[in-house]
Design goal:
Elements: H1 2-7, H2 16-38, E1 44-49, E2 55-62, E3 65-71, H3 83-91, E4 96-101, E5 107-109, E6 112-116, H4 117-122
């Protein structure tokens, strides 16, 4: 996250929360891309967005798994924070959908799993699935 913050031009209209959110998503993207490239079988890393602008930050798809991942910077979640994952799950019920946030232990929110971001990044293993399975 540090490189993004240093290299990004700054201005009067900058929103710190927005910048930190983008930096956090970039960090997760780097880890997921490394995981995808370390796989022996082909996996893809992409994002998902509807015509109504609902989105999911990351979609990992391959022979052994299908995951939709949303990244949030806040520890307090509301219904708007999961709209994209809920819509994705409706369209792709076979996907494992979860949210990453700076929390200390896994939690459930409205039927979705929220995982500790730090733990997820530390345990993302190229020899296992995205969730360590």
């Amino acid at each position: 996250m540090g490189i993004y913050r240093i290299l990004r031009p700054r201005g009067l209209l900058d929103n710190t929360a927005e910048i930190e959110g983008i930096a956090l998503e970039g960090l997760v993207a780097q880890h997921l891309q490394a995981w995808v490239q370390a796989q022996r079988e082909p996996y893809t890393l992409s994002f998902w967005r509807t015509h109504t602008q609902l989105e999911v930050d990351f979609v990992v798809y391959g022979p052994q798994g299908f995951w939709a991942i949303e990244v949030k910077r806040s520890t307090t979640l509301g219904p708007d924070d999961i709209k994209g994952l809920v819509a994705f799950k409706e369209e792709y019920p076979e996907a494992t959908c979860f949210l990453l946030a700076p929390i200390s232990r896994p939690e459930q929110y409205r039927g979705l799993t929220i995982l500790p971001l730090e733990n997820f990044l530390l345990h993302l293993d190229p020899l296992k699935g995205v969730l360590g399975e």
